[in-house]
Amino acid sequence: MNTCDICKKSFPDDDLISGRGIRHEIESLIQIDFPDWSDKKRICKDDYNKYRDKYILDIIKEETGNIQNLQDEVLKSIKENETITENDNILAKENLKLGDRISDRVAIFGGSWKFIIIFFIVLFGWILLNSMLILKKPFDPYPFILMNLILSCIAAIQAPIIMMSQNRQEKKDRIRSENDYKVNLKSEIEIRTLHEKVDHLLLDQWSKMMQIQEMQIEILEEIKKKVDKA
Q1: Residue at 213 is within a domain
Q2: What are phi and psi of 16, to 5 degrees?
Q3: Domain that holds residue 100
Q4: Alpha-carbon gap, residue 197 to 76, rounded angstroms
Q5: What are phi and psi of 130, to 5 degrees?
Q6: Based on the structure, what is the number of domains in the chain?
Q7: 3-class DSSP state for residue 216?
Q8: How far apart are CA 161 and CA 101, in angstroms?
């Protein structure tokens, strides 16, 4: 008969486990309650099973905590991180001058069916009016030189105004492209970071599962020994 250094009770030698045969992780738990614990001391099977169960429960709690921490980090990242994209329409309106507004309106009107219809109505009316008054005193007789001059002036003025609007649209497209690049870059970085966290968590879980499996094998071997003795 020998004494357990934990509960101080006497047990047969077969019911006591030497400190050299105990896992380092379980031994660390014992040393928390008994700082003077060493490999030379012995522990009974009941106390050993108590610390072993405690170690398994600590692993399970740690894994649950790791998953919860990962979820909290993701939620915190979503809540705290501000969006890096900006509305290019708002940015364009902030710096919009009077000339820019006029060029936009001219470009919109000049590229519509409304402008084409009005243009042909005025053109047809101009020709018809000068043709009907040709016997009297038309203000723009055939071949309608005044009308050609006005059309040339309109085309000469309309072209650069439309080009101004197109340049602004090109600037807006460039801002939109930069925003898309920022979004794609941020998404790539966040996905890569999340993958690293998940991989680290899986490796840690695999290590802990292996430790639990080894504990289960030890318990099964103890049960087998008890069955064989019975």
Answers
A1: no
A2: -115, 145
A3: 88-171
A4: 15
A5: -75, -25
A6: 2
A7: helix
A8: 11
